[in-house]
Amino acid sequence: MKNTATALLFATLASIQAAGAAEFSQGRQLQSADDFSVLPSRERVGVENRILTERLELLLPQLMAETKLDMWLVINREYSEDPVYFTLVPQPTFAARRTTMLVFYRKADGSVERLSVNRYPFGAPYTSAWSGGDLTEQWQALADVIKQRNPQRIGINVSTDWAVADGLTKAMHQLLLDALPKDYASRLVSAESLVVRWMEQRTASELELYPHIVSLARAVIAEAFSARVITPGVTTTEDVAWYIRQRFETLGLPIWFMPDVNNQRAGDDCKADSPFCGKSRVIHRGDVLHTDVGICYLKLCTDTQEMAYVLKADEQEVPAGLINALATGNQWQDNLTRQFKTGRTGNEILTATRKASEKQGIISSTYTHPLGFVGHAPGPTIGMWDNQGPNPVDGDWPLYANTAYAIEGNIKQQVPEWNGQYVQIKLEQSAYFDGKKVLYLAGRQTSWHLVR
After folding, report:
1. Residue burial 82-103, b: 16+ Cβ < 10 Å; e: rest
2. Which of 55, 118, 419, 427 could staple 59 via S-S, CB 3.0–4.6 A?
3. Is the pLDDT of residue 2 over 70?
């Protein structure tokens, strides 16, 4: 047994040296969110509305032509808003007041007419086709707008497979059918392809903002995984999670899920086939820490997972076995991102990633998803934590250029310093695909956060 452990240690050290020579690209360390500005709420409105207008004027015409829709209807009521509604309306908008109807009509020259049929007109970037207080008149006005333009393919937000494209309620659907001439019913088609493309596609202006937003998320993690927050033997993982949440609240940055913090240590029961390793408890020296964090700012969401190590009193550096494990995690990321090619489906990318990692002897799990207006955005799903095989529908969606992703997954690797026990390296970094390569929006973690 001793000879086996020694051989494993030397093999691990050799692997460390090879990983060190690789110098994984796009590594970046951040220190504090104080290094990044955050706009007051009032100043965010102008930025968000400028980008909305750009998307409506430049992107929407392309997507309606791509999905072959002549008209798109978004119809919803107050407190029952369509999931796509707030991505389409100017701020400050708090609800689809009473009943709000948006009409997008693709004209012969390829431009898109943007109309509102609702009690309270928005103003720019919409033209009011009707405003008033009578609901019967409102539905008639919508029918008149549609009949005057005589579209052949009218997209409505009904979908069996995509939740974000299923925002038209049964009651609103029936009222629409009642308002339109009978022969128009056959012209109503699902707008799911348009909704998914609208939600997943990022513009140049958004991609310019996104690195700053992701940096804020990563910088708060750096604060949390430091001695300014953690006192070994006293601080709990829950304490750190609440620090992260409250720090974001202080910065005025909404979270889209409660931050998670957990730890692993020598002696834990982490096996090669364990789905997840890590517990919520008091943090001690020698622990490995993990967090999962997501925020939204200027209408764009992030999703980030990083790792830290709490140094023992006699340590100056992270144990070699853990350095090697993180390098293996970076290698898994590279295996995944090398498979990103325009037109490939999420399932095809997953299969190729698993094949590459298995060839290298990496125990990995891939569960990568798109990012954008929401954290779990529509687009190509690349594996699920509980399904490493093909995923129907969202796994079959193809990869488009200028789309953003949470490069998410984990690896498990034995650590000689922990008597061969497995450690799980859980990584997630926000990135985008420019059509040729994957670029991490604020770099990625290639070295451990240290708690001294």
Report:
1. bbbbebbbbeeeeebeebbbbb
2. 55
3. no
